[in-house]
Amino acid sequence: MKSPLLEPFAIGEVVLKNRIVQSAMATNFGDKDGFVTPRHIDYLEARARAGTGLIIVEFTYVRRDGKTSPGQLGVSDDKFIPAMQTLTDAVHRHGTKIALQLHHGGRLANYRESHTPAIAPSPIAFTTATGSEVPKELTLKEIKELVSCYAEAAARAKRAGFDGVEVHAAHGYLIDQFLSPTSNIRQDRFGGNVENRARFLLEIIKEIKGKVGRNYPVWCRINGQEFGVEGGISKSDGQNTARLAQAAGADAIHVTSCGPTNPINMTTPVFVPAVIADLAGDIKRVVTIPVIVVGKMTPETAERVLQEGKADLVAFGRQHLADPEFARKVASNKSEDLTPCIYCMKCRDDVPIGGIRCSVNAALGKEADYRITPAPNPRRLLIIGGGPAGMEAARVAALKGHSVTLWEKKTKLGGQLLYGCMPPHKDRIEVLRGYLERQIIKAGVKVELGFEPTAEKIQAFKPDVVVFAAGGLPFTPPIPNRGDIPVLQFVDVLSGAAEVGERAVIIGGGLVGCELAEYLAEKGKKVTVTNILPEMAEGVSPVLRGYLLDRLVEKGVELLTNVAYDHFGPGGVFLSTKEGTRRTIQADTIILAAGFTPCRQLYEEIKEKVPEIKLVGDCVEARSIRDAIADGYRVALMF
Description:
The chain is an alpha/beta fold. 32% of the residues lie in helices and 19% in strands. The chain contains 22 helices and 28 strands. The protein has an eight-stranded parallel beta barrel with strand order 3-4-6-9-10-11-12-13, surrounded by seven helices. Strands 16-15-14-17-28 form a five-stranded parallel sheet, covered by helices on one side. Helix 4 runs parallel beside helix 7 (199-212). The radius of gyration is 27 Å and the shape is globular. It starts with 8 loop residues before the first strand and ends with a helix.
């Protein structure tokens, strides 16, 4: 039976070849002046080549004072049209439709980029915006000028070959600032009830339609509801706004959600239920135009949403980052081969600093340079270590046509992924591990488990190349132990090799230590996390860090930073706090979560005895999943 995702569908008079949409996601791939770059074209064309029905290009500023990030695209001037035409031509070559998302940051605009004071419907500061400045309240004349900017931008998009435009009216940006009662306290016709708060959006839609013609598709992306903020947009507000937008001429409604005081909520983290489908269903009941839904969809959940009539089109965001071949694999009934998004949110972290990256797809943003092509001279490769770096190196090398053998001393592939999937909300790590294992087997890699490599065995194998991915060893900090309390490594705990008493002290407050604390707290243990650094969970995505720390506090975990360790002794851990106070933290188990040291002993033995050897992963230095996979991919491309 054909998946409903693969059925053609129309927005207005534009017919899409399927119901798969790539939602707009900031990449920072534009240049500093807002122009489309070859990197951006390569990125989007790869998704079009795979068969995505509609690509919505990321938020694009309609006026310079609405710019929010250095590489944000612009459509505020005719000078942007030629490069955009090159982009639309590239996407159209593959039968995919493409739309441009129109945007103004309002009070979230970045002063360093716009060089002008922030503007908003009301003079209410957004506390985490640059400088936390109080924005200037827009006058009626200025509102009218902005409406015209949106319409002119839409006309440029049409001239550049875009098949439609999406008006960004969500996620805390300017139009959403008008829609939300928390940021709009105006007393004129643009403030007050829903009809007035929506007036800015409605006038934009009407003026765009007047500029581009009745048959050119125009739709808006709105919050179906705001969460985590008192007095924000309610479910009924979302429904009313959708009805009003339809009456103003909108050809579709794209339903999303967030909280205006925390725009990071626009991307649903792994532990937040995907509730947007229900919000889309609520809006679907009050409009007759198509509804697009987004939010942590798998092909299976997307099909169910379509079958239940909650939406007409399904937008996939991060899944398109993780796997550019998403649409092709769905159409080929190969969902088990989809590179899984692990919801680590690292993609968002990198947007302001050089462009978006993905933990599981090293080729994101490097599509031209990172193509996997057949090796001109296939070689005999030996991969030592079956963690993420080793498995990715094996996968890519095998796809290039090399003869690849992987040795892993454990009886199961995965390396640190075997432990990383154990804490709460980390089940996607096991999905990634399973994916990598399936892919290397399908690619023809010969896997030998429970195999302890030695210099003699490696020489006897006679490899052309050795990729050394033996990982790291848990670090043991030099803290004197003067007692008999068990001191364990975190891997002993997560693997089930050791029992933990009722009171545990964790040494190390990074990602591993904090996630281990939650794991133990959910088992009813009294847990204290200690850290020599001034902050807990450093290195964790800012999108997730607050949630993680809040959960630890809610579960009774004590968090101590800026500590200086004295020793382990009878009764627990003896240390000094940042205030200089000496304390004893009672414990019957001490757990070390202080990072890794590279495991290179075997490497040192063989590096002069094989034709070529490359180091990847934790045996270079402690690596995140993203950096380990990037290492493996990059090195495999060399051969």
